[in-house]
Amino acid sequence: MAVHYQFQGSTAAGISVSVEFALTHGHLAPGDSLPPVRQLAGELGVSPNTVAAAYRQLRDRGLVETAGRNGTRVRHRPPLSARLAAKPSVPAGLVDLSAGEPDTDLLPDPGPALHRVAATVPRTGYSAGPYPELLERARTRLGPVPSEHLTVTAGALDGLERILTAHLRAGDRVAVEDPGWAALLDLVATLGLHPLPVPVDDDGPDAGALSDALRHGAKAVIITSRAQNPTGAAVSASRAAGLRAVLAPFPEVLVVEDDHAAELADEELHTLAGTTRNWAFLRSTSKPFGPDLRLAVLAGDATTVARVEGRMRLGAGWVSTILQRLVVELWSDSSASARVEAAKMDYAHRRLRLVALLRSRGVEARGRSGVNVWVPVADEVFAVTRVRDAGFAVAPGSLFRVGAPPAVRVSVGRLRPEMYAPLVDALVGAVRPSRRVHQPV
Questions:
Q1: Please, which residues bridge with residue 372 across strands?
Q2: Do the beta carbons of residue 232 and residue 374 sit within 8 Å?
Q3: Has residue 434 got a pLDDT over 80?
Q4: CA-CA distance, 414 to 411, in Å (whole number)?
Q5: Can you tell me the distance from the alpha carbon of 90 to that of 394, in angstroms, rounded to the nearest whole number?
Q6: Residue 41, C-beta contacts closer than 8 angstroms, at least 6 positions apart
Q7: Fewest C-beta atoms under 10 Å: which of 360, 371, 377, 423?
Q8: Long-range contacts of 126-134 (CB under 8 A, 24+ apart)
Q9: Can you list the positions of beta strands (E) in 330-431?
Q10: How far apart are CA 401 and CA 407, in angstroms?
Q11: pTM (2 d.p.)
């Protein structure tokens, strides 16, 4: 949309501050376009180079992104807290299939485990850290992942930020999945890192494209093991072997794996852990046990784990021992485990049914694992609008894409049996809009 806010500033720093003020006070919203460089330079009476430098500063901080012919626009989720502009919500009356969140009806009840934890709350000091029993139990749950060095972070995204900042600096190149997790792409932009997109199919990242990214100077690679967001890809055994072969000549590259689905994953884990000198593997608890459990186990080489723990001591310090004990209780609770297993089967049924119905109508939807289905479309705006008119909110693929073709993401967390028919009709219409033939009167 057009921006009517009057920007100010005679230097690059001043202009960037003015844009940030507009963001925090609601004059600019996510997705809004900034004025063209030459236009704003003329309005402010400065050199176009000054405006370009301001936009570059904003881009390096992850506030804006270059949108090709559409110029420069505010990122979907800029790293700022806007006091006057709340995040747009799904309009009333729509079924929200856009969020990528688990079904709250399928989550285990944490009440009994909380009661057991509350009965014996130990007094801790400021020297607390990873809870030993949690680390010990994690070792038995990580399967093929080397677990000699472990620590705990406040969720997967917190772990990813700490891992990347432990090894990389602004300007470094990072190989990322395309399409990939929107929050990760935002984090990469905020850290000033340069993303090198690697296409993803059902078996995971393309090995040839990863090879190209490494030859172009990627210092890190971030891969989703299973339930890839947004496509549902899962790294197969053969793809893992191919990726290992590609990485072998680059032992200095940091390899990060995100196994966010954890116990909900219905595909076998094929890890790349240990392929290079520096590596990290993250498994969080939010998807199977609830988004409020912001905890992830981090396995890695000794240097990476030590750096992450060192940085944590200078900030948050540690993840709450009470939260860690709660996770141990849930891991040990047979009823909670049964609930997670039932949820895994339920998600698989919903996802596979939606994919099968779409494919039966000629739509090549993807969704091998996880809670999302990726539907290629020609026009994302039309598709989102068409599906919205049928009563559903889905996410535009632009949130997840670097250079991948257009699509929409459909989350099955709130999908119910009676919704399949109208949703599939709407998605088919979004992919192949009908053309009315006007008969002469």
A1: 411
A2: yes
A3: no
A4: 7
A5: 10
A6: 47, 48, 50, 51
A7: 360
A8: 126/317, 128/317, 128/318, 128/321, 129/309, 129/318, 130/318, 130/319, 130/324, 131/321, 131/324, 131/325, 131/328, 133/325, 133/328, 134/297, 134/324, 134/325, 134/327, 134/328
A9: 372-376, 392-393, 395-396, 407-411
A10: 9
A11: 0.85
Task: Identify which has the larger pLDDT, 23 or 440.
Answer: 23
Beta bridge partners of 174: 195, 220
One DSSP character per residue, 361-380 reads: TT---B-SSSSEEEEE-S-H
Q: Which two tokens stand for residue 209?
A: 């494209």
CA angle 43, 49, 54 (to 5 degrees): 80
Task: Tell me the torsion sign for CA atoms 32, 38, 41, 43.
Answer: negative
Closest CA to 254 of 282, 240, 273, 229: 273
The tokens describing 347, both together, are: 């998600």
Q: Which amino acid is at 64?
A: V
Q: What are phi and psi of 397, to 5 degrees?
A: -65, -20
- Cβ atoms of 198 and 206 within 8 Å: the answer is yes
Cα 95 to Cα 28, 346, 347, 415: the distances in Å are 27, 19, 17, 8
**Token pair for residue 311?**
């940085």
193-242: pLDDT as tens digits = 999 999 999 999 999 999 999 999 999 999 999 999 999 999 999 999 99
